[in-house]
Specification:
The chain contains five helices and five strands; from the N terminus they run ααββββαβαα. A five-stranded antiparallel beta sheet has the order 2-1-3-4-5. A hairpin with a 2-residue loop joins β1 and β2. 16% of the residues are buried. Pfam families: S4.
Length: 127
C-alpha cells in the first residue's frame, strides 16, 4: 500500500491529497529518509510524520483495505511517539491562547482592561 494512502486510511491526515503533499514536502520519513507518496509500506515499518510542529512516530502492524474508523486505528498501527514530543503539543496549545499576532484585529475587552490597568500602574510608579 502507498504511504500516502496508508496515512490517510489510519486517519493521520484528513484527505489523501494532504498526505501526498506532506510526503512531497519531506514531512514523512521511513528509516530516517524522506519518501515519495508512491513508496510502499509494509508491516513492521516505522514511519515518522511531522505534523503541526510535532514529530509523530508510528509502527505499522497491518495494512487496511480502506479508510478505517477512529476506534479501529489501533489495529493497524502503534503510536511510539516519545512523551517529550507530546508535551510540546500541550505547550503549543497554551502558548496560542496567550499570544495574539500583530494586526489580528481590535483588542478584546479583556485586552483593553489589561492595558488600562498597566497604564494606571505605571502612572502610580512615576508619581
Amino acid at each position: 500500500m502507498r504511504v500516502d494512502k496508508y496515512l490517510w486510511a489510519v486517519r493521520y491526515f484528513k484527505t489523501r491529497s494532504i498526505a501526498t503533499n506532506a510526503c512531497k514536502k519531506g514531512h514523512v520519513k521511513i528509516g530516517g529518509e524522506s519518501v515519495k507518496p508512491s513508496r510502499n509500506v509494509y508491516p513492521t515499518d516505522k514511519v515518522e510524520i511531522r505534523k503541526n510542529q510535532i514529530n509523530y512516530q508510528i509502527e505499522i502492524l497491518d495494512l487496511p483495505k480502506s479508510r478505517v474508523g477512529a476506534k479501529l486505528v489501533n489495529i493497524y498501527c502503534i503510536d511510539i511517539t516519545p512523551k517529550e514530543n507530546l508535551e510540546k503539543l500541550d505547550l503549543l496549545k497554551y502558548s496560542q491562547d496567550y499570544y495574539r499576532k500583530k494586526g489580528a484585529g481590535r483588542p478584546t475587552k479583556k485586552d483593553r482592561r489589561e492595558l488600562d490597568d498597566l497604564k494606571e500602574n505605571t502612572k502610580d510608579d512615576i508619581d
